[in-house]
């Protein structure tokens, strides 16, 4: 369990890397979908509240553990527990995180595969000649084609695991860091277009004027899970980033910067998408296909729309590709730690994730009528289990480990913001974050 010696080249490099890992489908695809199904501004308020009270404190805890341990997640947890005279079995929390990543990657690959299909359609210019109704119908027809959905799921997962098997993710991450600003620019362009639509004002009111009567227990659970998902918190992946964090960087400042950039992407996407939704008379609660229907409508009205839309999906695919590599890497590294060769580990993980993704891929076609628990589709289950349940549980355990297991001097040094900040952060985690997590999770299981 030797300590890693590499570090990120600069404080800016660390922030860009963590932002690149966090920004992806959670901001652009899932945020509008969840907001649409959970009351608009009511969901946004809950999401920001959980981000502040749970997401940020636990994000500090997770990165701190990686920075204090300077090892892989399982090794860092074991090392710090032994150092504090506690049970080495805390290392199994790293395995739980790996299982969570496994489930997340299974549906992440399926949805990212939808982007591949849309990239091909966008570059062919087929959206330009379609009405909004035809664009929506084409998406439903695509989901109802099991062969196409599985093919794109397979292509995306092959691209992901090939990079992980070869161990060349660093080059792709550098490319992502170069092109991610272009994704921000395209989102700003979309918002500029949204201003010209008839639904812009309605979208702003719907997004930023809360209707508290729209708050439901499910909205609460979805908002909490999304706060963890959008920050990539709760599965231990950020521990790996913390292990390479520069020694002179303030952890709280870096975390706040990442959160602001992350939320900004979600809000830009939400404003653009819901402006189109209301201007076209669409239902904001249209489900997981919301982004794939609204964006082609928007770009179809812009000069050179096919090129812009193609560029958007190229950049989105790049963002999701690097994020999926970050999801897969800890699982492959875990198998590598027991002596398995990287290519074989990537193959085993890839096959397992592909098989786990099949129910999600087929839940809109062959298995559309299959329902579990509270009338959930298999796709609903695949997204709810890891995001709304496993990530918060992982976050809870990480928080407990950070404030009750890690030695205070080690934690103060790793956070890098002084003893006063450490004491305030620890109090917030102990008396706000952990009780709130327990309360919401208990309510979820009692409701189920």
Automatic annotation (TrEMBL):
- Subcellular localization: Membrane
Keywords on this record?
Membrane, Transmembrane, Transmembrane helix, Transport
Q: What is its main location?
A: membrane
Q: Which CDD domains match?
A: SLC6sbd_Tyt1-Like
Question: Which superkingdom does the taxonomy of this entry point to?
Answer: Bacteria
Gene Ontology cellular component annotations, sorted alphabetically: membrane
The record describes its membrane topology as:
Multi-pass membrane protein
Q: Which PROSITE patterns does the record match to this protein?
A: NA_NEUROTRAN_SYMP_3 (PS50267)
Output this protein's name: Sodium-dependent transporter
Origin species:
Kushneria konosiri
């Amino acid at each position: 369990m030797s300590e890693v010696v590499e570090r990120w080249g600069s404080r800016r490099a660390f922030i860009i890397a963590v932002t690149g890992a966090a920004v992806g489908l959670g901001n652009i695809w899932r945020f509008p979908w969840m907001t649409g199904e959970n009351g608009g501004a009511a969901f946004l308020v809950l999401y920001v509240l959980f981000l502040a009270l749970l997401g940020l404190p636990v994000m500090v805890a997770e990165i701190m553990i990686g920075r204090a341990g300077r090892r892989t997640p399982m090794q860092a947890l074991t090392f710090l527990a032994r150092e504090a005279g506690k049970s080495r079995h805390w290392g199994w929390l790293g395995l739980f995180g790996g299982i969570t990543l496994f489930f997340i990657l299974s549906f992440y690959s399926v949805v990212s595969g939808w982007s591949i299909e849309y990239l091909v359609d966008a570059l062919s210019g087929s959206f330009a000649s379609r009405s909004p109704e035809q664009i929506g119908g084409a998406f439903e027809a695509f989901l109802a084609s099991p062969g196409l959905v599985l093919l794109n799921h397979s292509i995306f997962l092959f691209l992901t695991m090939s990079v992980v098997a070869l161990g060349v993710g660093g080059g792709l991450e550098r490319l992502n860091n170069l092109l991610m600003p272009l994704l921000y620019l395209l989102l700003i362009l979309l918002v500029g277009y949204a201003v010209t639509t008839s639904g812009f004002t309605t979208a702003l009111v719907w997004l930023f004027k809360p209707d508290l009567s729209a708050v439901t227990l499910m909205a609460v659970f979805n908002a909490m899970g999304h706060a963890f998902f959008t920050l990539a918190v709760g599965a231990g992946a950020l521990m790996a980033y913390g292990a390479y964090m520069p020694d002179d960087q303030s952890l709280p400042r870096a975390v706040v910067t990442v959160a602001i950039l992350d939320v900004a992407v979600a809000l830009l996407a939400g404003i653009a998408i819901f402006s189109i939704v209301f201007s076209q008379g669409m239902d904001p609660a249209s489900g997981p296909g919301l982004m794939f229907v609204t964006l082609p409508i928007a770009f179809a009205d812009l000069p050179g729309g096919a090129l812009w839309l193609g560029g958007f999906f190229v950049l989105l695919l790049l963002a999701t590709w690097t994020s999926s590599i970050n999801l897969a890497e800890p699982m492959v590294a875990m198998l590598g730690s027991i002596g398995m060769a990287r290519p074989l580990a990537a193959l085993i993980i890839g096959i397992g994730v592909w098989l786990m993704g099949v129910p999600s891929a087929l839940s809109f076609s062959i298995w559309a009528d299959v329902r579990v628990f509270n009338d959930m589709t298999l796709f609903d289950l695949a997204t709810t289990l890891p995001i709304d349940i496993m990530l918060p549980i992982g976050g809870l355990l990480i928080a407990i480990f950070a404030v009750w297991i890690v030695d205070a001097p080690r934690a103060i040094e790793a956070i890098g913001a002084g003893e006063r900040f450490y004491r305030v952060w620890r109090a917030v985690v102990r008396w706000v974050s952990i009780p709130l997590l327990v309360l919401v999770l208990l309510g979820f299981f009692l409701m189920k």
